[in-house]
Amino acid sequence: MRWLTLLLPAVLSVAALADQPMATFSGFNDWLGSETRGVRIGADGRLRLAPNLRRVGQLPEGVIWAAVSDGAGGAYLSAGTDGKLFHYAGGQVKPLGQVKGGIVFALARLGQDLVVAPTGEGKLFRVSPAGEVKPFADIEARIVWALAVEGDAVIVAGGAEKGAVLLQAREGSSRRLAELADETAFTAMTPDGQGGWYLGSHGRGLVLRYSRQGDRLETLMDTPFEEVRALAVAEGQLYVGADNGLTPKFSTGQLERREGYLQADTASTARSAVIRLDRDRVPETLWQSAQSQVYALTAWKGQLLVGTGNRSRLFSLPLGKARDADPFAVVQELGTAQATAFLPAGGDLLVVGSNPAELHLLSEAQATEGTLESKILKGAPLADWGRAYLESDLPTGTNVELQFRTGSTETPDATWSAWTPPLRSGERPALPPSRFAQFRLRLSSTRGGATPTVETVTLHWAHRNLAPVWEGVDIMPPGLVITRTAPPDDIGIERVPLETQKLIPALGYMGAEKRSFRRGGASFVFRVNDPNGDALEFTIRLLPERGAPLLLEKAWKEKFFSFDTLPVPDGRYRLEVTASDAPTVPFNAALASTWRTAPFLIDHTPPAIAELSAVPEGEGVRLRFVARDETSVLKEAAVSADGEHWLQIVPEDRVFDQKEERFDVIVPREAVRGDRILVKVADQYHNEQTAAVQVGTPAKR
After folding, report:
1. pLDDT tens by residue, 128-180
2. What is the DSSP letter of 431?
3. Which residues form the signal peptide (predicted)?
4. What is the pTM (predicted TM-score) of this model?
5. Rounded distance, CA 203 to CA 206, Å?
6. How many helices (H) and strands (E) does the chain have?
């Protein structure tokens, strides 16, 4: 019956079943998609309690653009987009004043006063501790990224109309020290310890040194990044924070909000890096990231701290030989979007955060508690969540707790379940199947300096199997055949009905299927998908209007099906197709779903021609006949004198819409050759009948 059993050999190999998912968190990148507070992530992937961090101040503005120490443990701050200034002192943030112009990206403390540089003004202003604002100097810079005090003068690094400029300003005057027309601006500045300045630029991301001897500007390094955002000097070595795409965001006043739970992507292009230039100016990349961008650097307590966004993580790069054992770590996370500045505050460190604008105090003392919320785990599309195994080292007085929660939204919200009670390692969480899940670790210590260490968390779950989902089965026009190779005795496109010819080149399916025509062929296209992405197989049955079903295929793998209907009696049928995910699912978990098509006809019997007559009349021949079909509506009729050239004709009522049609046609004399006329009729299933009549023959009833 079917051609495809001959053309497509059976697949003998058994498809491998999908592995049950699991996740192991042990390496540094495994934890990067997590939210941490008070937990240190080491380069080796171990989790420990972090240095203590506490929030000490908040501002109503979203972004703190610049910060400078007030010399007494507090800080002056610029925030917002309209030149607002604030003073943090004694644990409180108070408004200080406001300068006209754009965003203030740079501040410097000159004596008891503050020198500020609003964007686009070409001016420096002096602000007293009481908030009084006075002009300080005009400068040839449209944007200022860094200010520093040198005696009674202020060093200005920024950008002018014609490139990067370095200026010296005193009250009432300014002069140019250096310029670099090829760069947009100098974006970072720090003293070189020899009376000069290290500079970073935007454009080619250069690291430069300005020397007082001869006012000379020297390029030390051309980084592979667009800009140098931060510089720090420690133990005679220069540390460079380089980024791509950060300066334009500053310039427009649009720093992004905090990013959500991230997936680690180590294959992505680096967005930022920290590079060290040693005393011999040999560069070494100490750290780089495809996700974070560097906003600030500072040397503190034998380590280089890196303030990043848009997760406000504080990375630590140990200075000296300690780096060999522990090259980097995430030591804290502010909970804001960016960590934009570091300021000394006695023995502690004031850390500036933005989006929202906050001040945090980082101390060397260890936190007594910390939490880590994992990246979001995803079922496909639902999962049964299994056991988690925790490997940790717990000195006396320390503890680690493991909890779970689940939800239906990709970002946890109020619809998620509450956290489970703490679970023992290997204990199954009592959670219903869900699409998303997350675990939380809570590290704690009751002994000063003692910390638990988390080595590994291993999770197991199983995707909940769902039945295939049907959209439908498309019934192709009669005679259309879809195969991987052409069916035997393919008769070619020239005899394919016009409406089927139009479909054949348009039927584009994945793979190399062939579309062709054969009388008696029936084809179907399955529109079905599996929610789990499992491979499908199909059981196909032909259901007659009366009688027992006929099994056509029980393990069909394609999403199309063709069979030869010639051995099947005429009548009305449905195709029943059952899709099963058994090829890639354990047999006791396999699911199936069924679709039945609308009724369709199988018709192999040609129409009958009766009452055929051909009688001369006037200048032609009057041709009369009746055509009847037992199963389907008639589709076309034609007459011919020689069997090669046919004239299409229509019935008396001009519409082919019945199983029986009556024809009454005057055939022109020039179309009749000899005394014989041929008549041909066809039904919708391309069954044809032909009859001949002698001219002068009356109709027989």
Report:
1. 999 999 999 999 999 999 999 999 999 999 999 989 999 999 999 999 999 99
2. -
3. 1-18
4. 0.73
5. 8
6. 5, 54
